[in-house]
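Researcher: Here's a chain I'd like modeled. Treat it as a single chain, no partners, no ligands.
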Amino acid sequence: MGVMKIGRKRAMSLSKKLIFIAAMGLALMSGAVQAQDLTKQQRAEQRRFAYNNSLFVLYHEVGHLLFDQLQLPVLGREEDAADNVATWTLLRQKTAEADQALKDAAQGWILSGIAYDSGGLESDYAAAHSLDKQRAYQIVCLMVGMDDDAFEPVASEYRLERDRQKSCQSDYDTINRSLEGLLANAGSKKHSGTEVDVTYHHVSGQLKAAADAFRSSGVFDAVADELRSRYRLRQTVQFNAKRCGEANAFYDPETVEVIFCYELMQDYMDLYAANLEEGEIPPANSKRKNK
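Model: Modeled as a single isolated chain. C-alpha cells:
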C-alpha cells in the first residue's frame, strides 16, 4: 500500500503554471497577501481559515489511518470516503467551532479549485480525488443532510437545489449508519487506547511563521488526543509536522504516520489572503476571472 496524499495540488500544464505564478506575483506586488497589510480582523480570519482547513485535512488523514489499521471495508473511492469521515467527525461534535470548520473547509476547496484550476486537465477526471469543487459540495451536502434547519443557509449560499438538499438527508443517513457501525467499537479491546507520538520538527526561514501558527492552533494535538481517547489501535501512531517541499498532508501506512507539511499551512494562509484582493472571499459559485 502506498502513501496516501490529499491531492491538495493537482498537476498543471506549464502554461497554467505560468498563469498562476503570474497571478500570485501580481497579488504579492499589490500587497494583497502580505500579512502586514491585513487588518487585525483579517489576520484573525486568515488564521481561522487556515486552522480549520488544516483540521479537516487531519481528520481526512485519520480516515485513511483507520481504514488501514482497522482493515475497514471501503466501497467507492477511498479519498471520497476519507472526506466523509472528516465531515462526519466534525458534524458529530455539534459545536459552533466544528460547524465553522466545515464551512471554512468547503470554501477552502472552492478557492483551491479556482487557484489550481481543478478540472482544467483531462487527467483530473481520472484522478483518485474528486474535483475540488465537488469536495466542497459534498461537505455542504452532508451538513444539510444532517441538520436541514441549521445548515439551510449554507446550502442556499452554495445554491444547492432543494431536491438535492432532500436527497442529502439520505446520503448523510447512509454514511452515519455505516461509520457508526464500523467505528462503534473500533480497535482491539485488549488495548485501552491508541498511543500517539506528536512531533513538531524545527523549521526556519519563510516557513517559520506558518509552522508557529500551525503549532499554536492546537489542531494537531487535538486530533491526536481524540485518536488516543476514541480508538484502540495496536500500532503506535506518529504525528509529524515538518517541511516537506510541497503543500500537502498524508498518511503513510508503512510507518503508521500522519504527516502534515508546514507548506500546506502557508498555502492556506496565502490562498485566503490572495483572494482578499477583490475585497472579500468569493462565494461558492464564483469563477476564475481573467486578468
